[in-house]
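Ligand: zinc ion. Inputs:
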Amino acid sequence: MAGKLFAWCFRPPVRERSLAHKGRGGGASPTRLCARPAPGTFRDMKAIELSKYRNIVVLTGAGVSVASGLPTYRGKGGLWEDAEVARYATADAMADTSDEVWWAFGPMRTMAAGASPNPGHVALADAERQMPLGGRFTVVTQNVDGLHRRAGSKNVIEYHGCIRRTRCTKCETPPVDDTVAHESAPPCTRCGAPLRPDIVLFGEWIPEIAQYAVSRALRDCDLFVAVGTSGTVHPASGFVRSAKYAGARTLLVNLEPMDRPDPAFDDEVLGQSEELLPRLFRG
Ligand SMILES: [Zn+2]
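Predicted complex:
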């Protein structure tokens, strides 16, 4: 894959794009939003100077875990392509019986348990350790695989929970680490109610504590990086706007350019996160 996709792309100003469509005399050719320079230009990409920032927030999506062998959720080959799995990954299914939720998520739990963090996860954990005194580095992840913590990241907000934990459907017993792919719901040892994976299903609310932690991190953010997520879909789209409002520099790191560019992102870096993150956060 060497030299295939890596490119450091600066978005041209909007007025420059509109001039490109004026016809004769208006410019030689349309200005592409994200032209890809010649292969190898990623070597010129500047690393992020951690000392310049006090509060960095990195949002990660499924693209970050692809190199660890985990499938994405949507799109070709994604988990939700399996209609049965998608059907049981919901609050409605949970209301009937958590057995079906276990059926839907058992294979994911097995895959997550067998996966290892890749260089992208490790780069973020290293960056957190290298932040100057008083600085804060927060990873907000939409992934439920637990790989950021396993890579060594400490300040992680698992926005959709973690498949490697189990919790009670009824009582307030704290979630426990559990990587068993139960075939049916085991009972809570305290209250007897069925247990469930500690993840957010379709149709469920994001836990308030996660919402609050993200809002607090974004409020003081001075660098926001979205990685391995399209950047234009909720929640990433809302996060980048909050960060922008707080005055942060904003950056999207993704395999493909945005379909509909979001002006809230200042810059876009195209490529595989396991290659780009170690270069961006090389300290
Ligand atoms: Zn219980």
